[in-house]
Amino acid sequence: MRHTIxxxxxxxxxxxxxACAKKADETVERAFQDVNVVDxxxxxxxxxxxxxxxxxxxxxxxxxxDNPNRTDLQRGLAKSLIRSKRTTEAVAAWSKVVKMDDATPxxxxxxxxxxxxxxxxxxxxxxxxxxxxxxxxxxxxRLEAMVADANREWKRADTFYETAIGLTTRPxxxxxxxxxxxxxxxxxxxxxxxxxxxIRQDQTLFTAKNNLxxxxxxxxxxxxxxxxxxxAERAQLLHTLALxxxxxxxxxxxxxxxxxxxxxxxxxxxxxxxxLRALENS
Length: 282
What we know:
- The protein is mostly helical.
- The protein has helices at 2-49, 53-66, 71-83, 87-97, 105-117, 121-129, 138-150, 154-165, 172-185, 188-201, 206-218, 231-247, 251-264, 270-281.
- Among the domains are: 136-223, Serine Threonine Protein Phosphatase 5, Tetratricopeptide repeat (Alpha Horseshoe); 229-282, Methane Monooxygenase Hydroxylase, Chain G, domain 1.
- This is Tetratricopeptide repeat protein.
- Keywords: Signal, TPR repeat.
């Protein structure tokens, strides 16, 4: 009797231990899965920010082969292609992303960005038109402004630039673009103001400094503005001033500015030297 009763008890104990072990294994497996998800997310972020762009493309392409329906991986590939300046491939990648079930309005904006980079302004405009009106983001309005500029719709461009500036804490790039838009329209004084605003926002933005020189010289103002610049930048800006003066027929002023640029540059300024020789020989 004792042996008969004991055997089921032992069996029950064994089954209980087996169930506990199985439950523990499942818990550990789930925990490892969670850790893998966190690790993968961190790795994806690294690939999108600090990794070499082409390495990031290879990483996401491999990940997509294993998980072709994951939108986050398709999106990561598209962003990496933009970073690596493979614009045609990026357009194709973003076109795939926007067709996925969990695509967002931001994905359509990024597709429009890729299309503008590839020069397909017409399709970019249609893509932006498909974005819901209430999706009001800095990038969306910056691109809308660029499309309006390309269409020479100046009032729309001004409205979009102004809206974009209000949606970012780093407006220097937009101010520079807006200033260049004014420069192409011949509104040199307003362009000068916008370039100056851009430089105040970001003192390292050399493009805005050079554009400021173009706006001033278009008004036949051939003096350097009071802005932050190192010695090499000063020489380069003097060179821009000189070429602008020569283009407008102010040859004596241009020649003097070229000599000043050559004397100012901390190294040999070959480009300015060639410009001066060409001017003197002519």
